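PT: before anyone asks, these are the final sequences, not the draft ones from last week. 538 residues across everything. Please model them as a single complex and drop the result in this thread when it's through.
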Amino acid sequence: MISVDNVSYRYSGTPKDVLTGVNLQIQDGEFVAIMGENGAGKTTLVKMFNGLIKPREGSVYVDGIDTREKSVAQLSRDVGLIFQNPDHQLFAETVAEELSFSLRNFGFDEQTIKRRVTNISTALDLEKYVDSSPFVLSGGERKRLALAAILVWDPKHIIMDEPTIGQDYLQKDRLRQFIVQLISQGKTIIIVTHDIEFVAECKPRIVLLSKGAVIADDSAPKILTNDETLAKASLVRPQIAELIHQLPISEKPPDIIDAYAAREFLLTRLLKRNETEELR
Amino acid sequence: MSLRFVEGFKFTKLDSPIHKMDPRSKFVLTTGLFITALMFTNVFALITILVLQIPLILISRTSRRWLRSMKAGVFLGAFIFAINAISGTSLILAIAFSLRFFAIMSAFSFFFMTTSPDDLGLSLDQIHVPYSISFTFTTAVRLVPTMAIDAQTVVDAQRSRGLELDKGSLMKRIRNYIPILIPLIISAIRRSVELAEALESRAFGATEHRTAIVTLKLHFVDYLTIMGTILGVALATYVYFRVPLPTLNIPIKLPRIF
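LR: through. Structure below.
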């Protein structure tokens, strides 16, 4: 479990707190999306989960351990943080070496390294590139490689910072399926994102940040259909939710945010109408 | 590892007499300090060059950021000292080389903290440096803080993958910087290619003769600074050749390793 207790943080030399009195509990195996406007403190918050930033006020606990008491390397063994831009981490001559970098840092033996590199490159469709340079891969492939470079050591909690940026629709859908797979393996998934459509399809728990404070913490359908709350975090409803909201019909369910639920609702309404017309 | 020392080389608009000075006079002053620092290997002379800069730093109200850059330079200063000391150079000379590094770093920190890249570009244009060169120079100066942010992100990303920069032998520690430097160089190259394309798309270099709305003018204080620097360098040259300076004597001899 990741627990954030009354955390406030200010970068030195800046006049304002970037996080103010944040309280948050994320259970093992949960899927959470941290959303909010630019500068809301989302990335600062998740950087506290693997100790890159230590809170100045309050505490962050990962599986009961205060992050102040452990190094980033020790915390990273359980908390994998995938950065937004893959180019900020790729450096090795080959994809295989890139994948084995963290395993060597964590002291895995060569046999395990070989096995894990093979497994993860197959799982993320990178096996044909293992001997290629990471720099010749396309943007989407580099993003997948950055993800694989973290998943390779099998961390318990996985944090993804803006995982959908620069991804086409198919890649986003593959990412969504992959996240579902990881959750089924018991992993905690935390995503930091602005991609409201992606969140509407995944339906995680949403933690909404604005000006460094948590302003809402609820299920995706509840938050993504609350215009007042969304406006505070410079967000808008997903398109499907807006479509249902705009329909001139009575008895609209208030929490439809994805295409499947919208389809079910519209089909039911159409069938009902047909039945009524038939009766007439 | 924090890269906040870059703040010590970043321009911030402040209302100080030094900030108001012409960039050319500040450049002459910095060059003067640089030349004199290179001239001497005498510890007392180098301390004097360093101390002479303190009033300038105080007047420019940049002392806090200057201290930060000096603090960050301690590692490199110690490295210069160690390399010289173990390679057979005398202990005094090793101290002098470290002091020279601090004197030069301080002079450039002072210059970049108090000179706007725009004014710098303008002054280069006014001394007829080709615009493409002055633009490249000022862009490089402007990109330093951005590069520092990139470098911090790269460090964070690699630390999140279990990299411990401060662990292991000296050689291991040096090798630990490879995963930091390669992404940084690659992203710098990518950024420069994108910037070049964006500039060309916006007709960079379409006109040969550019005009500027602002013309820099040297004032009394600038002439005074330039004259003072020339006299200072002349005096330093005289002292270097004609005046025997007191020397520091440390009766310790380090074993030669290389």
